[in-house]
Specification:
Strand content: 5-15%
CATH class of the largest domain: Alpha Beta
Mean pLDDT: 94
Radius of gyration: 17 Å
Bound molecules: FE2/S2 (inorganic) cluster
Low-confidence stretches: none
Oligomer: single chain
Structural class: alpha+beta
Distance between the termini: 27 Å
Shape: elongated
Length: 154
Amino acid sequence: MLRETLLRTLDDLVGRYGKARENLLPVLQDLQAEFGFLGEETINEVARAFGLSQTEVFSVASFYHFLNTQEKGKYVIRICRTISCDLRDKANVLRALESELGIKMGETTRDKKYSLDYANCMGTCDRGPSMMVNDRLYADLSPSKAVDIIRSYR
Ligand code: FES
């Protein structure tokens, strides 16, 4: 990403939302939508623009599962890591996905198509295990159902 493009985009966003702390999240969301992830340079420039420390901005960017601080694949698959899904056989769903994609949790396929990541509770605990592919939520997963869903994104 060109630094000038980042600075111009950030400038526009700060002009639109303002520099108040509560506007940090929408600015980060829009930057991610524009650039795909929130890398170190982006975090540093946002911190400067908002008058916050880099640690504060990074804490927000890394807290929310829908924000990425590292470059991810086109499809980000997030598996719920909260207790109800753990108790509903999440481990076998994850194993099936890792085997299908040939990557481990936290990794991205070499063709940059898929990333595997954890997320916190998605609100479908009674129908776990649950996962999201980008913004789409899937529940009642079995290992084979999860693999079929991933294959539908090919
Ligand atoms: S514990 Fe997994 S969706 Fe709530």
